[in-house]
Amino acid sequence: MNRKQLAWIHHIHATVLILLLLTGISLYVSFFRTLFNEWKIPLVAIHIVIAIFYIGIMLISIYQAFLYGKKRAPIKKFNIWLFVLLFSLWLSSGILMYFQHLVPVWVRNNSVIIHDWSTWIVIPWILIHGYGHLFNVRIPWPNWWRGRKQVPDWISENKLGRRDITKSLLLFLVFLFLGGWIRWISPILSIPENEEKRRGYFRIYNVTNDYPRYEEEDWKVAIEDLNQVREELTMKDMRKLPWYSIVDDFHCVTGWSVRGVELRGIYLKNLLEPYYANHPNDIYVTVYSGDELYYDSFTISQLLDEEAMLIFELDGLPLKRSQGFPCRLYHPNMYGYKSVKWVTRIQLTAGREQGYWQTNGDYDLDGYL
């Protein structure tokens, strides 16, 4: 490639990288993620497509970039090495996140952290780099860093060899893992000793930007049988049923997990028995959220035989609004997107409905781990 072609590759690389960062940050920030859900824009799929395009650009240009930067100023070499490192981290962690069902929990959790931190690390550099180029502003880098003066002796005498670069990269990874690990265990450090300790933290995902607001005494759940006979149950009715506590690991399809969560509520088999007792086994259940948008469906055996629950408390405390207060579904063998929040309606049907994420995305209908 000549210099002009490399310049074009540089501009394409910058454009695709910005799109990748914008979609990635939108997935990370709850407000934007929810907004795209409301607009029915498949942000995850768009992010993956852009990432694949970015991989192609890097693979095409990486060798030529190294040749170009070999005799260039230190800042050029730094740019190349920085993005090669970040590309490696993004690619490896992204693959592990995509195939997270094939790897242990600790691998998928750390993959999410590495993916996030690699993004936050590069943002300041991109802002400085882009600001200087777009507005032709002279960034006060040292002249030797930009290649306009001879490298000082105290630096030239300690030029980095392969071993030094390897050590630096390993040190960088150690600090990256250390920072991610501290963030990962932070919920443990902030809870009293007598409470159930857990590993990880919840990322709150919704399909609307406003949480349904209920008072416990006003909340009701409607249950409809196959004959469309409807009955509404209150929290008082729920407390008449036996309550159970379980400690389980909560897994999200995006790759993160929270381990050792204490959940308390009622088993759906105890709640639904009067409504399905006189019906055949081939019936289905659709569970609706109070946000009036989200819902998901199950076979009757998935809820009854696999010990699905309606949850009212988490770690000994009532659910927060963002967690689905006062009631959410929980299935111990399925990903979190099957655990409908703010449950207000449970409908028995003769055929199975496609859930929200099956209609608006490519999520598996059963959602097993």
Polypeptide structure, described:
This protein is α+β, with helices and mostly antiparallel strands. It is 46% helix and 16% strand. The strands form 2 sheets. It has a 5-stranded mixed sheet. Strands 3, 4, 7, 8 and 9 form a 5-stranded antiparallel sheet that branches. It is elongated. It starts with a helix and ends in a 10-residue tail after the last helix. The chain crosses the membrane at residues 12-32, 44-66, 78-99, 119-139, 169-189. One of its GO terms (biological process) is respiratory electron transport chain. Residues 211-357 form the Oxidoreductase molybdopterin-binding domain. Keywords: Membrane, Transmembrane, Transmembrane helix.
Tell me the structural class.
alpha+beta
- N-to-C SSE string, H for helix and E for strand: HHHHHHHEEHEEHEEHEEEEH
Gap from first CA to last CA: 47 Å
Q: Major sheet, described briefly?
A: 5 strands, mixed
- State the total count of DSSP E strands: 10
Please mark out the parts with pLDDT under 50 across 5 or more consecutive residues, or reply none.
187-197
Q: What is the CATH topology classification name of the largest domain?
A: Fumarate Reductase Cytochrome B subunit
Radius of gyration: 26 Å
How much is the average pLDDT?
A: 83
Strand order of the biggest β-sheet: 2-1-10-5-6
Layout of helices and strands:
Layout: H1 3-28, H2 30-38, H3 43-69, H4 74-98, H5 105-134, H6 153-156, H7 162-189, E1 220-224, E2 230-234, H8 235-238, E3 244-251, E4 257-267, H9 268-276, E5 284-289, E6 295-299, H10 300-304, E7 309-314, E8 317-318, E9 328-330, E10 343-349, H11 356-359
Helix pairs in contact: 1-2, 1-3, 3-4, 4-5, 5-7
Protein name: Oxidoreductase molybdopterin binding domain-containing protein
GO cellular component, one term: membrane
Domain Oxidoreductase molybdopterin-binding: 211-357
